[in-house]
Specification:
The structure holds two protein chains of two kinds. By secondary structure, chain A is mostly helical. Chain A is built from two helices and no strands. The N terminus of chain A is likely disordered. Chain B has 13 helices and 20 strands. Chain B is an alpha/beta fold. In chain B, a hairpin with a 2-residue loop joins strand 17 and strand 18. Chain B is globular, with a radius of gyration of 22 Å. Classes of the chains: A mainly alpha, B alpha/beta.
Chain lengths: 67, 459
């Protein structure tokens, strides 16, 4: 017998929210204000990993960012 | 010992994905990874050009397995030497890094250096969170991270994996062993992450200062990694702590853990196959060995954009089994018994093959043995196995001599060769908090040591 399920599957609505958040954060990742750009990049990475773990999207985007 | 492990999935959809869907995902991720490194990494681009394996050239995973060149540690070191510190491997600008790591160099070879972007770091900590959750760590748990917090990646990823999950990472880097034990007595720490050697070391020290870890602490789980955990070593740890010692494993070259045990009754470690493609090859022929046969694991990482490993020859010896050998419900295959050793750890003496962990397993079967060292030397043109052990303080000289005789006989049964077993003076052998080194090959023709697995360096 397997372990209990820790959560239900991702709903289509959840997936759409995650993709929207990802797109929003991606747009902030080049923001001129360092106090916005830095945290946006960290948050972007976290959301990208959620999408990756769930098999929704697999983005290797950092090469497109300005160092 | 009761089963104190809480079962569950970090991400049920990923962990129970049908195998056919899993393979499709691997191929999709691999294609994206190949496009990424071809565009950004001069090292990988040259190798792909030379092999005729440019993005689009490959038709599927089987084509990748049959044609893509194997990557050796020496290739990485050569690339790093040509353009230090990271060589020509990175596929993104190192200026985008938020962390830098390197292997400890304890093997005597130059360290492998890597860095991680924010994207990499999210993947790395998520991999650890996946393994820790499967092992039974939960949000709200306090977990003692026994680790030096230096350049070696060790438990850095574990620390962040705990935070990612919502558990409390208790960084014990600056504490000595007694202070760590006292903290476990005083506070509600649910789990400890350390090497097997250090788990035993803490148990011995606790006994010396009159602390029963099994009854005087709240620790219900140990997460051990970085070294082999032979069966008897595991038993000793679990007896002393009154808690299961579950194993996770990864590599510095990957930046994180790649496999984990899902419970005390697990037949081995599940491979996180959504994020790493693992092959098991015959070291002689380079051909796949199939399930149930021993071989060397070759890994392809699917989550790191800075430094990517494509068909990296790890030297780890494993036996892969189908996922359904474990009853947990995951569809991720299993390395039976975990990492069994390293291909370059296998020693041959008088026609008999053995690994240092086989000697450790024998040593741990003797309650009278406190510490030991094994040396392979050439004496009178004959390869000779020499084991020196320190008996525990209560063992008399006469009893120690008897142990030496029985120890030699047990090694003969396990390895096939009779060693010289010597009784050492109290305190004469080195002790280890981390990365135990209990084997030395002094033969004139001894091959050099090779790569390292993820571990925790000293505090």
């Amino acid at each position: 017998m397997g372990p209990e399920a820790s959560s239900d599957d991702l709903s289509a609505q959840d997936e759409a929210v995650l993709l929207r958040v990802y797109a929003d954060l991606r747009s902030l990742a080049e923001h001129p204000i360092p106090a916005v750009r830095g945290p946006a990049r960290l948050a972007l990475a976290e959301v990208a990993q959620v999408l990756n773990r769930l098999g929704v999207a697999y983005e290797l985007y950092s090469a497109e960012l300005t160092p | 010992m009761t089963d104190t492990v809480t079962r569950g999935y970090w991400n049920r959809a990923a962990e129970t994905m049908p195998r056919a869907r899993l393979r499709e995902m691997q191929w999709a991720k691999l294609q994206a990874q190949l496009r990424h490194v071809y565009r950004g990494s001069p090292f990988h681009r040259a190798r792909m050009d030379d092999a005729g394996c440019r993005p689009g050239d490959l038709t599927g995973l089987d084509d990748y397995f049959s044609r893509f060149p194997l990557l050796q540690r020496a290739d990485i070191l050569a690339a790093e030497a040509a353009a230090p510190p990271y060589g020509t491997l990175p596929a993104v600008d190192p200026a985008l890094a938020i962390a830098r790591h390197q292997t400890s160099g304890s093997s005597g070879l130059p360290p492998v250096r890597t860095f991680d972007t924010a994207r990499d770091w999210a993947w790395i900590s998520d991999m650890f969170a996946c393994g820790l959750y499967a092992a039974g760590v939960r949000p709200g748990d306090q977990v003692a991270v026994v680790f030096g917090y230096g350049m070696f990646i060790g438990f850095w990823a574990g620390h962040y994996g705990l935070q990612r999950m919502g558990a409390t990472a208790v960084a014990t880097g600056s504490m000595d062993t007694e202070r760590r034990i006292q903290m476990l007595v005083d506070e509600d720490v649910a789990a400890v992450m350390c090497t097997p050697t250090y788990a035993l070391h803490m148990a011995h020290r606790a006994e010396q200062i009159g602390v029963d870890l099994a009854t005087q602490t709240h620790v219900r789980l140990l997460i051990v990694t970085g070294e082999p955990r032979p069966p008897r070593t595991r038993r000793l740890i679990e007896q002393a702590w009154g808690a299961p010692a579950l194993e996770v494993a990864g590599m510095t070259e990957a930046g994180t853990l790649l496999m984990f045990e899902c419970g005390p009754d697990a037949p081995g470690m599940h491979i996180i196959e959504t994020d790493v493609i693992e092959e098991v090859l015959d070291p002689g022929t380079g051909r796949p060995v199939g399930h149930g046969r021993q071989g060397v694991r070759v890994m392809t990482t699917l989550g790191r954009e800075g430094v990517t490993m494509l068909r990296y020859w790890t030297n780890d010896v494993v036996v892969r089994q189908p996922h359904d050998c474990c009853a947990c419900g995951r569809t991720w295959d299993v390395y039976q018994g975990g990492i069994l050793g390293r291909a370059d750890d296998v020693k041959k003496v008088r026609g008999c093959l053995f690994t240092p962990s086989m000697i450790e397993d024998v040593a741990r079967s003797f309650d009278e043995v406190d510490e030991f060292q094994t040396t392979l030397d050439t004496i009178g043109a004959l390869d000779t196995l020499i084991i020196t052990f320190e008996p525990k303080p209560h063992v008399t000289a006469e009893a120690a001599a008897g142990v030496a005789t029985r120890f030699a006989a047990a090694v003969k049964r396990a390895v096939g060769v009779t060693p010289q077993v010597r009784v050492g003076d109290a305190g004469s052998l080195p002790r280890f908090d981390m990365k135990a080194k209990r084997f030395t090959d002094r033969r004139p023709t001894a091959p050099p040591a090779a790569g390292e697995r993820v571990s925790a360096d000293g505090p």
